[in-house]
Design a protein that fits this description.
Rossmann fold, alpha/beta, D-amino Acid Aminotransferase, Chain A, domain 1, seven-stranded mixed β-sheet, globular, 23% strand, 3 domains, five-stranded parallel β-sheet, 14 helices, Dna Ligase, domain 1
Amino acid sequence: MKVCLVVLGGYVNGYGIICELKKKTNEDIILIDTQIVLGAKSNKIKDFKLINNDILSFKKVLFELKSSYDKLVLYPTNDLYLEYLYSLYNEIKDFCFIPLNINTYSNNIKKDVQYKFCEELNIPIPKSIILKKDEKLLSQIEKLKFPIIVKPTIRDDLKSEVFRNKTFNDIEEFRSNIPLLLKYLNENIEFLVSEFILGDDSTLYSHVGYRNSQGEIVGDWIGHKLSQYPKSFGVVSSGINDAPAIVREQSSLLLEKMDVLGLFQTEFKYDYRDKKYKLMEVNLRSHMWNKLGCATGYYPNYELYLDALGKEDTKSIPQKKEIRCFVYMKHELFNLIQRRKEYFNTFMKNILCRKKVFAIWDKNDPKPFIYDTIDIFRNIYKKIFVKLKGGV
């Protein structure tokens, strides 16, 4: 059987998948994206397919690949590709391995549903409510303590103009944003409002892996963010493959309750007030720092491949792995530029870590690194140009 491994999205997370699959398999790797990204420059892929940002263009390229391969194994890297796969499921399931549970997916992506499962399992969560458009907004949040964070229950910012999250420090700040919230509520976008857990980026912990067709979690590891970009509500800048065992324990219970199939990343935040690890969200796809897992002996993307082909991996007893630090230099530099003295010590500690895993650098595959480095200077130039022009 001729198999093709199809990575959907070629940014840092997609490139990490490409590196892992190239290391562990001899199959052809095809990258699909709506723009030319660093993964498209890799010599590890057989081909790059540039598509329009719509489901019909995506569907067309899958059927084109079908003419050359017996089976496509799909690797989504963002929520929009998951939505496409869910919508096209019945049309492509005969020739594609789709890493999602068609029966539970539509509920599992909702943050309020994730929190309800946590309540049933006694997994700690921030105190939260669902914002309803048919009631006065101020009265709904009166039992919550500020600061609060507001997020769409479903990640809508990839296909609409709604914000990914907003933090409000006091009632007046919330009151001034009521017209904006009502606008989206009237568009049938739901919001989860939670008390904000105090603490910096280093209080965030993740469980990463693959839950296969038999309901087993395989290739999984736990990690600890050291920094994010942008600050507080961004994506990983640096992180290590080390976290308390309770993070894996709580995550595994939740994933079983949700009956997840596919790649996952659960994120928890440590609350110093009650010394509990509280669920922030569950992502049913690959994430930014998956290259760290591969570098330390864990291969969730390879496990997906084995599951798709009905193959078995030789299981070994989990061992204590060497602690290494994942560093995405672009984000580290942007943090340093924007936060300066506040961030300098963190920056030096992260980049001087003796055992580093660079997000992009590979001496045998230099073009993605060169492309990403050029993009760093392009972004810096844009920021300086806007500043000189008096922009914000």
